[in-house]
Amino acid sequence: MTLVSQYRPIVVEAASVSDSEILRGYAEFWKIPYQAKTEPNEEHTVITTSNGMALIGDAPVIVSPAGREGAEKIARDHGLTLNSKNALISLPARRDVRVSLRTDLYEFSGPDLDPILRSGDISILSKIRGADIYVLAVDLVGEYVRRVIRGFEDKPSRRFWLATKLPFSYQSIPRSIRNRSFRSSKGTDEITEDKLGPIECLRTIFLASLVLSSGPIPRIAFWKRGKSYALAVTHDVETKAGLETGAPRLLAVERNLGIQSTWNVPSARYPLPTGSLDILTETGEVGAHDTMHDGRLIFLGSEAKIQRLKDCKQRLEKLTGRETRGFRSPLLQHGADLASATAKAGYAYDSSCPSWEILSPTSLGAHGVGTVFPFEIADTLEIPVSLPQDHQLIRVAKQEPSAAVDLLLRLSKWMRGLGAPCVLLVHPDYEFGTVDYEPEYLRLLQNFASDPECQIMTLSEMGAWWRHRASAYWDIREGSATVLSPDTESPSKDLQAELVTSYGVDGFTVDIL
Fold first, then answer.
1. Is residue 77 classed as helix, strand or coil in its secondary structure?
2. Which residues of 437-469 are buried (b: 16+ CB within 10 A; e: fewer)?
3. What pTM did the predictor assign?
4. How many structural domains compose the chain?
5. Is 295 left (phi over 0), alpha (psi -120 to 50) or beta?
6. For a FRET experiment, which of 36, 61, 263, 370 has its CA 20 to 30 Å from that of 15?
7. Same structural domain for residues 238 and 202?
8. Which residues contact 487 (CB under 8 A, 6 or more apart)?
């Protein structure tokens, strides 16, 4: 039990049910205590998309504009001047760790407006003098919808669609020709934090606005006590050679470091005799990777997707004698219909969406969902491939494996600062599965294995942990706060309670409770 005498209840109440769901998603991400309605005679802070609440309320209210029309209404109601522009903003999350976002901004100005939170010369959060009203320059709801919900769809290009209509699998095309087709003129300079994690900037704005307007706020840390970030090592085993030759080499490195990984295997693309997957399940887990890996999954109807995913799951479970809990689609194909199919086929999670990649093989354009954290969509838990996969770095961007490792380590340092999960995708079929580049793979994994703050997990363990954290809740009574475990309804022993006390030039100041 922890004293939080300065805590002011947070109310999330927006103009519509859909807006409220998005705003509550921000609160659920941070696992801060909140409520849906104001209570009589209670000091609270409201975050909303409805300026009407700001006009009638008698408590601090933070208003996020609902698009251009909502921003114009805020300006009219409060006698402010509005200037709209598209710009890149950057904010500290913690010391030496920043989050960035390029977005449409609604900058308010006026003689009675005081800036509270800035990105350079851009006012992100301002307070109306003489009132407990704070206005944001960012549309928290609309930007999340655009980037995550709509951005989750990766529309196939016509060229890819034609390739899947050939009477044979696209894999029959010589690899040299396929590699030229899946090559981008954009280099790894395109892989930047504002592309990998713009949603992390939105989440920072949400929590910083509450702390700056309301004071200290308790939250639940992302990982178990003593750990500050996580790693999941995953492999998509595309070929028989990858299974028989590359996988043992990668496994040898992982065994020496005590790392258990997730191996995603197609169930019907190459022969899988009895015992062929034993080497993978001895120290790790097997996930599903479609049946044929022919690129056609995304084009199937809903029922056909579900049946194909069930067939894959059942075949792998028969081979391994274990439950196949997770799915990753070939070519990282993803969309709401496919994500829904994974849930209906009985999978506990899906991991088919990149945070961002230079070239999607499906749409043949840069693509990503813009967050490095797991999120719920279409009734399933999506665990993004948060680090650029080896194929993108080495085959698409033409990096040397040593340079690819350097980049992965740099990005993982940024993710560590956010407390994010580093989801690594390495194919045993490619360079890291060869003798020549085994030392580079070892160098990559040693960085995580030697860090006592890294929680190393399989994908199914990560999914189970994220759901465990999501179901925990706060019990706040008479100035004392306790995190309760959903399983026992008693104080949690593995979840870490924290208190965000302030926000400034070094990001959030956090005390362990």
1. helix
2. beebbbbbbebbbebeebbbbbbbbbbbbbebb
3. 0.93
4. 2
5. left
6. 370
7. no
8. none
